[in-house]
Amino acid sequence: MGYTISTEKDDFSLYLSDDGVNGYFASNREGSKGEDDFYRFKIFNAVSF
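^ thats the sequence. predicted structure below, dont judge the formating
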């Protein structure tokens, strides 16, 4: 999915909601609260099928 979702860190467990707009993934990025944290993202130009 490219940077800022896919980085050189251990990004995994991608989930995209049925609406194709909201998603979540886990990562061990620097500045996190623990070893692996969940992150939320939104796709603003999503196209529904």
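The two ends are 19 Å apart (CA to CA).
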